Amino acid sequence: MACLNKLSLVILSVLVLTASLASATQDPELKQCRHQCKHQRGFEEEQRQQCEQRCEEYIREKKHREREEEGYSRRSRESREEEEEKEESGERIEQNNPYLFEAEHFDTSVRTEEGRVHILKKFTERSKLLKGIENYRVGFLEANPHAFVAPVHFDADVIFFVASGRPTVTLLREEKRETFNLERGDVVHIPAGTPAYIVNRDEREKLFIVNLINPVYLPGEFESFHGPGGEDPESFYKAFSWKVLKAAFKRDRDEIERLFGQQKRGGITKASREQVEELSRHAEGGGGGGPIWPFKGETKGPFNLFRKHPVSSNRYGSLFEANTEDCKDLEDLNLMISFANITKGAMIAPNYNSKATKMSFVVDGEGWFEMACPHTPSEQGRQRGGGSAWQGEKSGKKFKRITGRLRRGMVFVVPAGHPVTAIASQNTNLQILCFEVNAKGNTRYPLAGRKNIVNNMDNVAKELAFGVPAREVERIFKSQNEEFFFPGPTQQEEGGHRAYM
Amino acid sequence: MACLNKLSLVILSVLVLTASLASATQDPELKQCRHQCKHQRGFEEEQRQQCEQRCEEYIREKKHREREEEGYSRRSRESREEEEEKEESGERIEQNNPYLFEAEHFDTSVRTEEGRVHILKKFTERSKLLKGIENYRVGFLEANPHAFVAPVHFDADVIFFVASGRPTVTLLREEKRETFNLERGDVVHIPAGTPAYIVNRDEREKLFIVNLINPVYLPGEFESFHGPGGEDPESFYKAFSWKVLKAAFKRDRDEIERLFGQQKRGGITKASREQVEELSRHAEGGGGGGPIWPFKGETKGPFNLFRKHPVSSNRYGSLFEANTEDCKDLEDLNLMISFANITKGAMIAPNYNSKATKMSFVVDGEGWFEMACPHTPSEQGRQRGGGSAWQGEKSGKKFKRITGRLRRGMVFVVPAGHPVTAIASQNTNLQILCFEVNAKGNTRYPLAGRKNIVNNMDNVAKELAFGVPAREVERIFKSQNEEFFFPGPTQQEEGGHRAYM
Amino acid sequence: MACLNKLSLVILSVLVLTASLASATQDPELKQCRHQCKHQRGFEEEQRQQCEQRCEEYIREKKHREREEEGYSRRSRESREEEEEKEESGERIEQNNPYLFEAEHFDTSVRTEEGRVHILKKFTERSKLLKGIENYRVGFLEANPHAFVAPVHFDADVIFFVASGRPTVTLLREEKRETFNLERGDVVHIPAGTPAYIVNRDEREKLFIVNLINPVYLPGEFESFHGPGGEDPESFYKAFSWKVLKAAFKRDRDEIERLFGQQKRGGITKASREQVEELSRHAEGGGGGGPIWPFKGETKGPFNLFRKHPVSSNRYGSLFEANTEDCKDLEDLNLMISFANITKGAMIAPNYNSKATKMSFVVDGEGWFEMACPHTPSEQGRQRGGGSAWQGEKSGKKFKRITGRLRRGMVFVVPAGHPVTAIASQNTNLQILCFEVNAKGNTRYPLAGRKNIVNNMDNVAKELAFGVPAREVERIFKSQNEEFFFPGPTQQEEGGHRAYM
């Protein structure tokens, strides 16, 4: 552990140095970073390689960031034009968007050669407007083929969604061991405190698991506890005194010390082909192996979201959903999980959830979302005062458009009641996984398309609400015949805003 | 919207101006306000009328406020005398009362010619002692005969109690529409996110609905969302970009723009007699129409509080109650609703709720309440420190009397465990609607009258607790034979304090 | 009340005076304190005696505190040596321990000649790391033989565990009275708002009751309400105005005033033998009287923890447990209660709770505990920032050892997921009562002994996790054959650290 920590320190100082070179181009920076790695005293060959790898990674990320920023300013130029157009038409866009999260909002909590774990910061650190989901965290695990994720337990309930790779997950529940061979689309609940380990049994595909984390003790905060382990990941056994460990294990200090000093390779390591086979051999089969899920209420353990019939599907997209009525685990967690695959160029009907608040993770593709937000800009960064509502003429309440470009790895939050839509780019399908909390009794209300709420109103209510004859309301609200996925705005509709796609 | 906003601004500046005239009597102030309305450039006739109306309303409110303040100082003189009397007798009164709310503690969230919605500010803005109910809001809706309240949904569960008028309420639940013709005493739950609209089908009586609001996302804060609407109430559809709206509706921008620009009359408008008839024609009938409610556990939808047998009734008053065992909706919300009609000159037995905290809304009449409060004065405005309890001699714990005059529209809060009583004036019945949260398993303990807790004690416990022979305890606690409503203090008892009645 | 308050003031000033005498030895201090009592004007004989008693008590406590501090500095010298030893071996100990509570962390809320009630301060006053249990309070009641605890209700659910004495507890539930003759090991739930009184029917043994308090209104804060009572404990009836009391009781003011002025002896008084007999005569019998508990789900009312078969027992200790599946009351409170009796010189297996957080009260004996804590020292006193977790190499996450000596009356908290062990001294059994909140679905995972989690892993996982062949892992993890209680570290193991035992 000590030497790894030293390594980290060296890399940090190297990076700080190189980052401070004002006009550094790619080569000089990387060159200097590597140079420092090479001439660091006390480094063995392996450490030197790691150091250099870290240099390259840093440079890659930096470049990516620069491109991002460039992209932003390009987009910002464009959106300025767009905004001008919109100001004419009286529209409002919210630039400062506390509901959208990118790479920079994640913390790295594990990073080894074989994989990494990134966790989104606490929602309430971003904005008081996210207080409603303060006890949730979102994250992901990415690991190489045949990577092994060391045994660990959390003081949190954790939901895994397998987006790619073929993980074998083992849970240690009291005296019995449960092993599941999972596939893409499988959802598994790791109850708080349950030790679990994972191996990616795929020898080609990377493992990508999206997590929802629901701490059981401190609001919005959780910790990992490695029992099996050594110096890295450090075992919590090492916190006990020697006299206690000797009595607990009935072994000598030397032996114990040796055992808990061996593992030094980090929380995600590489398993051999034989080890992978051994670990996955006795598995019970995941949610993808069984009959079409679910048998209402019976399900315990993993299930596959894609084995269920989609709740909505046409050639513009498909929506898969598992809710509190499908599965005991989801009921206990008051959670709904849905997956929308929006065909390229298509869109989801504007809609809102009646009770549930949605944390959406972009699993693949590109596009953008738009959300109507009733809060005033001044409220967005700080505690709101009175928060009065149902505000008509007096306060001049306005809905602002919250919008943001979406791509793989991004997260956006949609609070209960807020109308939202998502649109896939012209080039790729947009795939979004949603964790919807406070899900019990939730209804998804479509705001356009065949079953929209306005069609369902009395004619008189339509007239009174819109101030025009009912048939004029219907002309607008009954043209779209599709149900939940529509053809999206076409190229020509967007005018000069191709970049936005 | 723009012109209405301008109107608001003008009115505001007019009011500020007139309000600053130091020694203004009624006429000059009103005169100047009207004058400004008349000479405001760009106002059409209708706007001018609205402006003047607003002037009058402002003056009315100002006068009311002045009368109030006068009343306060008169009462304050009186209560000073009263206090002196009480100091002799060792009593303590708490003047600063965070449990009582008047008109000034409400925010206006809608106000049109046809009606208004007032919502009490967040409880925790008033005092940390109200933290236990921080996720609730109380409000009311008042509207003219034949007024129409535009379709809206909230990110909150909302309970309606009909105090007067005959509303027809329509809920849009997914694909079905539910319409109820309600009467006085009906209670209906609008689940979070459910679009609803209301028309007062009575052509003479004003509609008065008391609300309890339980936000589902942000603690103690909620928002209203108008889908159907135009410029006022503004539709949230207007927050989406044109390209999205065009794709969602499959219509041209011009058409869409026209539709969402028409409605400019505000969230509460007037319906014609024909429209009212049409809106109420297909109603299922409210809670007042069915057989005597409830059939235990079955009820879903509205019910009428007065159709149930009162849980307590004599010639001094009646108590109606619906609790978590009566109704699935109430169970889900962990809520109890009760209505006390205290005969003029009578009182409720001092009592406390074992678990539930009570938000009481004075629906009609006048009177006052008294509550025993264990908190020290210094705690009332700020966060309490240790909050130690069960305090005997060491800390010299005292109960303070929290008291306040009650009249229509006032709210008072009674925390769990706190002994309280309410007394009707000699002139009118006092009618109080109570929302009691954390209601599951609650017991109401009477502190005087036939079933009081002291009567239920062992004789030995009476002796030890009071330090006198049991029969002396009983002489006090067994004289009152009534059960929950008693004859109140009589005129002569009060001495010079008639005004307090 | 007035004179008692005066008494308190005098005692306070006397104590302040005497405490300020720099080099005071026992005699002079006590002497001066007594002198002041004697010469205080206006004191009657009884008050003078109380005053002197208080002096002696103060001196006793002061001496105790001094011995404690001495003990600390001795221990601190020792632990410095120990630390040095540990630094060599790379161990970390956390000196500042927010999880451990001693006498100084309790507030006295009642103290009379016959008994006292001490309540632990709010957990969040100590550390933000205790936020997960902020709505719980722990306390205890100690009273003499034949002491009577006056009728009282709380705005909190209260759990009583009888550690010694034989209390007769009476609950007033609406119109019926329930009386239970309890014994050591009995657990009873006093639901929020339920008036209760207690008499210790044992004529020799002191009553000692440990409390868990779960406020129903303000988070982590509760109050006591005495109805029956007079000046001390003060009755809340006295907060109502005379005109209200006269109407409520239909009696004259004089009579009422007399009744509520009699009781002046404080919340815990002495009952005569006849009164004790009368109070306990009609009891239903406690949890100890019935057949072996529980009949699953049926139990309502008291039960005896020791009547149940221990969930784990050998010659090194016994563990008794009642959980949410055993008892409706515990299920409603989401609570588990357990009692560990660790044989002298023995230890509990290191273990953790998967979901539940444990508040442990040392009922008897001495020893110490060790806990592995993942939080960094800087977090311990203040709000944590991001609280990222699952931290591997990058953040250099370390587990610290939280440790503390245990003796009767101390409390320690073990959050969910945290590995912990407790060790009895060589001289006495260590008896610990645990309230475990968030208990539903909790599993206790042993980290050593026959059923430890590592034994349950695949061999391949053992190899990958520890970086050594599986048989080497097993050599350590399979030597200890006992299940939950082990022989503890022996005298010789500890070297020079006897004092720590």
Automatic annotation (TrEMBL), chains A, B, C:
Start and end residues of each stretch annotated as Disordered: 66-94, 267-294, 376-395
Family annotation (SUPFAM superfamilies): RmlC-like cupins
Pfam families the record matches: Cupin_1
Domain Cupin type-1 as annotated: residue spans: 98-257, 303-474
Matching PANTHER family: CUPINCIN (PTHR31189:SF13), OS03G0336100 PROTEIN-RELATED (PTHR31189)
Keyword Signal carried by entry: yes
Signal sequence extent: 1-24
InterPro entries, per the entry: Cupin_1, RmlC-like_jellyroll, RmlC_Cupin_sf, Seed_Storage-Functional
Descriptive protein name: Sucrose-binding protein
Coiled-coil region(s): none
Biased amino acid composition, Basic and acidic residues: 66-80, 271-284
Domain of life, source organism: Eukaryota
Record keywords: Signal
Organism: Morus notabilis
